[in-house]
Design goal:
globular, 17 helices, alpha/beta, 2 domains, about 500 residues, 7-stranded mixed beta sheet, Spore Coat Polysaccharide Biosynthesis Protein SpsA, Chain A
Length: about 500
Amino acid sequence: MQGSLGYVIWTACYLAVLLGLSAYGVHRYFIIYLFLKNRKRAVVPAGRFRQLPRVTVQLPIFNEIYVVKRLLRSVSELDYPRELLQIQVLDDSTDDTREVTASCAEELRQRGFDVQLIHRVDRTGFKAGALAAGLESAAGEFVCILDADFVAPPDLLQHTIHFFTDPKIGMIQSRWGHLNRGYSLLTRMQAMFLDGHLLLEQTARSRSGRFFNFNGTAGLWRRSCIEEAGGWQHDTLCEDLDLSYRAQLAGWKFIFLPDVVTPAELPVDMNGFKSQQHRWTKGSIQTCKKLLPRIWRSELSFAIKAEATGHLVSNFAYLLLACLCVLLHPSTGGPQSGWMRTLLIDIPIFLTASVSVAMFYVCAQRELHPRTWMKQMLLLPCLLALGIGLSLNNARAVLEAIFNHKSDFTRTPKYGIERKSQAWRSCKYRPLKSALPIAELAFAIYFSYFVWFAIAHRQFLSVPFLLMFQGGFFYVSLSSLLPWSPKFTFGASRSPSPIPA
């Protein structure tokens, strides 16, 4: 009797998780629909400035010795009148980066640039605090924000500033590119992940009148929009998402420009990538808790409220995926099989929870790479496996946000890596240690047994899916553990790559 009751409870939990994942799959289909419906809709400025306005370029920096020269060089090459450009170097660094930025700032001053170097001893608010501190002395009516790992294209301001001739526009976001997309399997998969979000989701939401968010960098803000929305706040780890929703709730309009590309360096080590994913996931859930009730109390249309909800709760999918990993076990492989269950449960869930993810990334790659997208899709199984392997890392972030566990803004190390010939393991910035890879390795071993069980019991249809679980956890765990092998050397005296003037 107890065994029967336990099976009923387990089955209910199993199906609830699958239905939850299916709901996220349906939402992905909706995003694809919105994208395809609106992708041809031209976005043009309402007019052009007769006299270009003053722009402040804010560069938040913290211990970025390998990329700061590249960043400042790209900003100095912006195609914009020098007398209308203010550069704010918001350097909170605690290492030799301070000397590098000071030297670069002085060089730019000698070349006639208006450069303000701000160094905070008290890093309250981390990046949000630095941006807020810089805004107090910003001279520009508009603010362009660039993280240290980005390289501004010379025409970035010329392609964006004229959209602000519409007084209702508060923010312009460009699409991220990838400087080191082909560096490794990890960077190629990251690029595909980001392409899906930065092309499909942002375009779909922007052009259909839904809320979408500033991505933290590679965008321009109207200063009065920031101030009217309540300014930069640091009670979440996603200050960009938080401010974006507050600004749009205040009535400001945002524009996403998929054809204006600002390239950046992708994390080349697994621990840095996981740290970045943890911060983004936790911050989005914190923002969800903070603003979702306010969204539903507003007078916005139901369509905007519903899509904002889907956006803000999207990372709960990682918690469901982690639960699915726990609920799966070899003795049953799920609820008892049969043609009725297959027809009513398996096929609908497969089409919504699994196929939707594949279609999402296929659609993005086909749009961006019309001639080579099929070659890109060879990595799709690896991409899905990586998402599964990240489930424990990101589920932990969701739980920390739910239970208000405090954590600092952990920067993602950048090493100035653009080519395969460049190495990062001799750099001074060390990846963070964590016990999580041990748990990920345990799941990998468990799913190895699961694969063997499926083969031994002739459950061949389930083997490809189980291999993705097994491979994803093995890849993420071993990639996290290997940098701590004695063969890897951190903290060596590698100097920043020289960047020609």
